[in-house]
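Before a colleague's protein record goes any further, I have to sign it off. My question to you is simply how this chain folds and whether the tokens agree. I do not need a full report, just your reasoning and any doubts. This is what I was given:
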Amino acid sequence: MQGNATELTSKIEDVKIRREKRRRKRRMKKAVISAVTAACILVSTAACIGIRAQLKAEAGNKTDVRETTNGSLSGKTVILHSNDVHGSIDGYSRMASLRKGFEEDGAEVIVADAGDFSGKTPEGGTVGALEGFMMMRLAGYDLATLGDAEFDQGYEKLRHDISGAKLRLLCANVFKGDKGFLTSDYIYETSKGVKIGFFGLTSPAVCDGLTFLSGDELMGAARTEADSLKKAGADTVIALTHLGSSAKKNSSVELYKKVKGIDFIIDGHTHDVITEGPGGEPIQSAGEGFSYIGVIVLNGKGEVEDHYVMSTDRITSDDDVQKEADKLKTHMSTGTTAKDKVVSNTIDDSSRSFAADSSSDKEGDDQRLETIKAETVRARSDRSEETETTDSAETADNAITADIAVTTEKTEKVESAETTESASDGLKASAPDTGEASQDTDAAAKVQTEEKQMISNNGKYEVVKGDCLWNIAKKHLGDGTRWQEIYELNKGIISNPSLIYVGQQLVLPPG
């Protein structure tokens, strides 16, 4: 009996153990099902949000305004914009084509970029800031701000590359010491007399030698810019930003909520395809890699009457610009990196002019800009003590600093002398266009004469402001691709072919 009782007890325990195991399995199964269900709900919710965002973007990607205007946009101003190109240089040919199309329909066109044009190409090459500037010049860009990708290779590299830009670079929240790194704002006056004010902002980044304003200071700088542009007579104020369209701090959404006087924001950084912010804010962004191009239509009073994004699949390429993009990609694929500074031979010496007010090709822009900025100086002098600190930073921000495109102490002194000729806020003065043209012609002839003398006197070439190895090779050897020969002969004094300095004596190979 004792044995039977023990055996029975053992069997009962086994049953309990098996039952407990089954219960554990059922609990585990329920937990797994619950987790999977929750995950599915989250994924579905995210998908729905994504679908809504995409539908919202597609709603903005509507019929081209030219299809509803009977082929005429006379009296209209159209702003075309890109952002976060990240090395997808084939898109520049489509931008050039779209610009020509709008101009043929009678619109006055402004082309702008909201930063991060540097990056890896789909083919594996690397587009640096200088190559981006070159492609933007070919495509007819007028304005740009910088994105964080442009700061990745450091201050010296960026300073060198900026000297090759042929467009206005705007940024109000980056400083070198107590001076603005770039021009902060610009007023574009249309042929009809409409004044469109632009100012630039970029996301805070890390770059030795530069200071980035963020938070309340960034908003303060933006507020100063918007107020100044309005006081200077801007009919419309547009912020060209690389801040991102999220609702987070330092974003374009926060910018619009906190800063009065901004009529529209062209944004980049978060790669969104949007035609308005989450709360209906007038913010537009064209995605990344030239998937879309943004379009903003202004009426005869400068008011935004239409805006949308266009898929680049709907836009044909400009053959000339595409050929240059293909050349650049070929150089990259053969092992020439962005550091080596190989650019198309259609980029002449003038492409290395300053990336500031003096770089405009539009007749009369500098004279009008000087008048506008003079008005801004007077307006700023009337501000209360409460904003004096911001004014001081703003004044410095609008100056063209010697650090942008000057690489030696000699040229820095020249730049300093030029800037101190301006009004008390440090703004650079501009001579009348007719005088500037004559002076530029005389200066160019003088430089060429001096270059010939330098080469004939000592057998070497002395680097002058605006030079790069490609241009030197093209000018004196007849072939820009021979820059590598110059580099090989001068490795003792050139550590980086991207960085050559005014006054350096270079040995040139036989012509």
In short: Residues 47-60, 335-439 have pLDDT under 50 and may be disordered. Residues 433-507 form a domain with the Membrane-bound Lytic Murein Transglycosylase D; Chain A fold (CATH 3.10.350.10). The longest strand covers residues 195-202.
